[in-house]
């Protein structure tokens, strides 16, 4: 196993554009820390490329961005990259899947009978987009409330924290953001309620399976 | 019966409640629901009204949140943070 960060970030709809932008911030942080990083962006995020890289370079941390279900993780244009059949190649690694639902079944399977750790979501990872900024994710302060806490998982791992700590810091940041929303003076109560609801659902749905003291 | 095992018919009774709760969403907001897509409030209300698979997901999310509030889970999490 090598200290390499693998990032998948397909880009083909609003959600993946936002996830890809935020994953890009993590890639920059990794490069600033001189951490080896392989970026599968856009159409390069396909099963063939990713599988080949894992076999060849044996990365210890995989940051998967995109769509998911309870049993699949997808790459570019919904190509399946990991499922029950091939998920063994993720054994013994740290996996953070910023995708819907994979924490319910696939994540458990990935870490079954090995020393790996899976962090993900047991139901939809959802976030609010302010349509005024949908073409400029970096300006969207509403989406940032949701995506910055999720970036903290990998950010924390890059700093050398254990998997359990990385997960806890990320979830704690969601609660901080809920408190921040509660204090916002420029938003109506109804608007605050919408934000709090979906922030809380991500907090409640974020799960960790397997080895909780693994370090990148 | 768990939320995931309920049939579409069983979610019918929650439609009005969920639509009322979605109606307060600002018109410039869109909810990204993974591979299902990104929806503004009118689209969300449309799916909930039809009780299709996207509508069911939205209803499940609302019920999960209402339950968390009712059980004091959100308050407990905020107090302990």
Task: Sum up the structure in keywords.
heterodimer, A: 216 residues, alpha/beta, Rossmann fold, 6-stranded mixed sheet, two-stranded antiparallel ribbon, 6 helices, 9 strands, globular, B: 81 residues, mainly alpha, 5 helices
Short description:
With 216 residues, chain A is an alpha/beta fold.
Main sheet of chain A, how many strands, which sense, barrel? 6 strands, mixed
Low-confidence stretches of chain A: none
Most residues in contact: chain pair: A-B, 41 and 27 residues
Our measurement of the CA-to-CA distance between the termini of chain B, rounded to an integer number of angstroms, reads 32 Å
Order of helices and strands of chain B: HHEEHHH
* Spatial shape of chain B: globular
Task: Output the radius of gyration of chain B.
Answer: 14 Å
How large is the radius of gyration of chain A?
16 Å
Q: How far is it from the N-terminal to the C-terminal residue of chain A, by CA?
A: 10 Å
């Amino acid at each position: 196993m090598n200290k390499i960060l693998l990032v998948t970030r397909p880009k083909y709809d609003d959600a993946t554009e936002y996830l890809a932008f935020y994953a890009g911030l993590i890639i920059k942080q990794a490069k600033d820390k001189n951490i080896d990083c392989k970026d599968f962006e856009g159409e390069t995020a396909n099963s063939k490329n990713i599988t080949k890289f894992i076999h060849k370079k044996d990365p210890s941390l995989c940051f998967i961005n995109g769509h998911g279900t309870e049993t699949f993780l997808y790459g570019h244009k919904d190509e399946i990259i990991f499922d029950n059949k091939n998920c063994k190649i993720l054994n013994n690694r740290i996996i953070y899947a910023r995708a819907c639902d994979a924490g319910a079944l696939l994540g458990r399977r990935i870490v079954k009978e090995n020393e790996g750790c899976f962090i993900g979501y047991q139901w939809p990872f959802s976030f609010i987009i302010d349509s005024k900024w949908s073409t400029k994710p970096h300006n969207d302060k509403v989406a940032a409330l949701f995506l910055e806490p999720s970036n903290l998982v990998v950010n924390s791992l890059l700093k050398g924290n254990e998997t359990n700590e990385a997960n806890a810091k990320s979830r704690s940041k969601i609660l901080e953001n809920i408190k921040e929303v509660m204090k916002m003076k420029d938003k109506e109560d109804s608007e605050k309620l919408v934000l709090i609801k979906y922030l809380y659902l991500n907090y409640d749905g974020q799960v960790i399976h397997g080895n909780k003291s693994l370090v990148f | 019966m768990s939320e995931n095992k309920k049939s579409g018919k069983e979610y019918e009774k929650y439609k009005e409640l969920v639509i009322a709760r979605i109606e307060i969403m600002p018109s410039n907001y869109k909810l990204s629901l993974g591979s299902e897509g990104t929806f503004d409030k009118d689209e969300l209300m449309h799916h909930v009204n039809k009780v299709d698979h996207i509508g069911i997901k939205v209803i499940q999310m609302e019920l999960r949140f209402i339950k968390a509030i009712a059980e004091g889970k959100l308050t407990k999490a905020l107090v302990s943070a």
